[in-house]
Write a structure and sequence with these properties.
It holds the Pfam family MR_MLE_N. By secondary structure, this protein is an alpha/beta fold. The protein has two domains: 103 residues, 2-Layer Sandwich (Enolase-like, domain 1), CATH 3.30.390; 199 residues, Enolase-like C-terminal domain (TIM Barrel). Helix 6 links the parallel strand 6 and strand 7. Helix 1 packs across helix 4, helix 5 runs parallel beside helix 6 and helix 6 packs parallel to helix 7. The longest helix has 18 residues.
């Protein structure tokens, strides 16, 4: 029987409001791709990213357009050529991984690593707000070992100091989401170094980050919006110390593994991150992140409601997916 692809748009409420330098949202809008062979089904989830011009409607249409190729048996390697990197390919690629695992009875992790996956310590994200509001968030989560702090606006120095004081036992990742400028990047980085910040993520806009080659990296700098696929990496040498791999940017686990391996060859540290999505989106990323220096897979922790069954979180520790969820 030919493989049949179906697509659905879903919305999951966020617990409160999630704010970064580019805006706020109160729900996670996701696209779910399901591929069935008539006996078993595989699923993949993606989050269209407005920063790259993706919309729910366009991503759904792109997935539907590949349905004839799925019916004819296209494999994941060929999918890399048939669809561009991005959210749509991510959903299809991850659905194929899940389908293959369920058809063969062999868990997906067997094709990713030589060792069974282990629970990972994930960062927990604090939304952008006033220094006082961010300090309150930090105090509420001061028991978490790793906090990711959304910044990228005026008064970031006060935000950094407030969060550091409110959660002195937590390591911090600062994520500016391209919100700093050439005028303030060195001052902000100096404060981050003074306060013992572990990592700074995408301080400057992608394509406007050449200055990073000429300033001291007292804190390691991680590329996010500046890196999507393996071919982007050569241009980042000398600018960044680490790369944030997200399946929605790379276009699936297959491409993300290529990016991961090439990044390690070039000497970049690895961070595996996510958009705000459900456990279905995080599941393949947990496999990818097994040897990452930084893990940021807290999407379900930010939701008021997750999928069932979902990933198991114990504090900041996320366990590998069970087959009923994915893989």
């Amino acid at each position: 029987m030919p493989r049949v692809l179906s697509v659905s748009a879903e919305r999951f409420p966020i617990a409160g409001t999630f704010t970064i330098s580019r805006g706020s949202k109160t729900e996670a809008e996701v696209i779910t791709c399901t591929i069935t062979d008539g006996t078993v089904s595989g699923r993949g989830e993606c989050v269209p990213y407005k920063r790259y011009g993706e919309t729910m409607e366009a991503v759904q249409a792109a997935i539907e357009a590949i349905a004839p190729r799925i019916a004819s048996g296209i494999d994941r390697k060929s999918l890399l050529q048939a669809m561009p990197a991005g959210a749509a390919r991510n959903a299809v690629d991850c659905a194929l991984w899940d389908l293959e695992a369920k058809m063969s009875g062999t868990p997906a992790w067997h094709h990713v690593s030589t060792m069974p996956p282990r629970p990972l310590e994930t960062a927990y994200t604090l939304s952008l707000g006033t220094p006082e509001a961010m300090a309150a968030q930090a105090r509420d989560n001061a028991g978490r070992p790793l906090l990711k702090v959304k910044i990228g606006g005026d008064n970031d120095v006060a935000r950094i100091r407030a969060v550091t004081a409110a959660a002195p036992g937590s390591r911090l990742i600062l994520d500016a989401n391209e919100g700093w400028t050439e005028d303030n990047v060195e001052e902000n980085m100096a404060i981050a170094a003074e306060l013992g910040v572990a990592l700074i993520e995408q301080p400057l806009p992608a394509g406007k980050d050449a200055i990073l080659a000429s300033i001291r990296h007292a804190v390691p700098i991680c590329a996010d919006e500046s890196v999507h696929v393996a071919d982007d990496l050569d241009s980042l040498l000398g600018l960044y110390d680490a790369v944030n791999i997200k399946l929605d940017k790379s276009g699936g686990l297959t491409a993300a593994l290529l990016l991961h391996d090439r990044a390690q060859q070039l000497g970049f540290s690895i961070m595996v991150g996510c958009m705000v999505g459900t456990s279905l989106a995080m599941a393949p990323a947990v496999l990818l992140a097994q040897d990452a220096e930084f893990v940021d897979l807290d999407g379900p922790l930010l939701l008021a409601r997750d999928r069932s069954p979902g990933l198991v979180y114990e504090g900041s520790l996320v366990s590998p997916p069970q087959p009923a969820l994915w893989g």
